[in-house]
User: What shape does this take?
Amino acid sequence: MPDQIDLRTQAHYRLSFGNNVQMRAQQMKARIRPAVTEFAASGEAQSVADLFGTVEARRAPGRNARNFDNRPQMDRRWVVFPDEIESGQYIYTEDKLKSATDPTSQLVQTHTMSVIREIDLVCLGVYRDGGEFKVGDGGILGTAADGKRGSTKKTLPSTAYTAAGGAGLTMAKLRKSKLILNTAEFGLDDDDQMYCAITPYQVDDLLALAEAAGENVPVFAIQQLQTGQATSLLGYNWIVTNALPKDSSGNRMCPVWSKRNIALGVWQDVQGDMWNDTSKKNTPFAVVDARVDAVRVQDNGVHVILCNEPA
Assistant: This one.
């Protein structure tokens, strides 16, 4: 391709593409990420216990001059330097190259959104396996890096699950999960929001609850039926996603969690870059990438409601 794309202006395109990706990342709405607690991470691994652990204050007797070393008492949990999340493509035409300078272009939006969605999966602790989602490492549902050096993998205990019982999302299951989390001191403070991730099947279960509620829960019922969307119930903020995995029995895993109990370490936030690939006749390559890892601070700050879904 003679003079196919003369990138003597590469610095301009590279700067514009990077700025556009950052702009779109701020504008595009992630689903799960806003429901976790973020912090800047560095190094090979970082413990989250001292950052997010809860402590109990004391009443110092009399004129007590002794310092009170009040460290969080819990298992030591870690976020670990992660693999890169990336999405990109070669740019073979000048028109496509110019679209990199347009923040509304399909090129910028497509790759930025794919990385944002993958960060949500990291927060959930799941990964794609073909057309399905499965529980992986870290995040809300996955195995947590635990122990003195983070070398132990800890799964959610069996007590963190409410059985499906052949039913979908019911009021009894929601009440049980709320009671369990509240008695463990999660969701009681104003700054500790509670979230529940559900699929469209569980949204339909909530609509059925609203329809059956009649005058008993009028506001909930009216809002649900008018909008067709899940409105807050029992203090839960709903997140609707199709990325929830199933257990070995085929029941959907719907996690409920405390925002302050899920830590997202950010080594590198969503950013874009562009360069010439000399192995491809100097063809420009554009990429959007990020490096993040997430972990539960405490297991008892997460509860999983198992829901049966129609075949």
User: Anything to note?
Assistant: DSSP finds seven helices and 15 strands in the chain. Helices lie at 10-27, 49-52, 94-99, 106-124, 171-183, 200-213, 218-227.
